[in-house]
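Quick illustration, no need to memorize.
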Amino acid sequence: MFVYACPLRWSDLDAQGHVNNAVIVDYLQEARVAFLREGPASELLDSGVVVVSHEVEYHRPIGYSDDPVTVELGMAKVGASRIEIAYRVLQDGELAVVARTALCAFDFDEQRPVRLLPEHRAFFQEHLIDAERLRRIPAPDLDGRGASVPLAVRWSDLDSYGHVNNAVLFDYIQQARVTATTLWDPTMARAGTKGSDRLWLVVRQDVDYLVQLSHRIAPYALLVAPVKLGGTSITLATEFVDPGTGLVFARARTVLVCADLSGRPVDLGDATRAALEPHLV
């Protein structure tokens, strides 16, 4: 088990005073990079490795502290070209997040996966752990359906490979989710905004990365649609697309829980359910 102490920044906090859900994925990335840099697989970060998917389950909020959070990680699976990393994020010894990332060694010149070198596989196999899979969140492909939210890529969103960093997609998805849900139902206003009287807590978020995303001046679009309404929860599907061609770059599934201002789950309410039902996919 590799252990990384990840320092917090004041700017990591959201309007609720907790570390934003999207920032957690940045913590996972910092731990993953530290793990790779300390072993013979360090060169993968320079030659090419891409994130295939993230699964993130949020158990409790992370508050600001001068002390770092602890990220524990190990290898859940080692394949010919693909690996899976399992994580636990803890604050003050309490479990806050469980997550899993699939990565693939990749040749950017030829735009194809490549096999891991024997020394890379040996290093990863030394760190194999027993890690339970997270329950998959089912959601249909949107196929052009859903509310379309334009989003411009910033130059600062790019990583060392010249593509949008995998963690930044969580920020894009969050922006589209807030825009779409408050458009459908203004009472879903988020904490810190006018009319906000409930909290909307992200308890699970998965992203599948399909195509590398590059910078351009013209905005892309995110399609957002509810796919399931529960008693206290909403499951949303999101797709990052090129509005001109329909090309899908990434797909995401997010589970939101409605809570009162103390953080206790409460029923969605008839008004919110009625506002969202016409948009169900």
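DSSP finds five helices and eleven strands in the chain.
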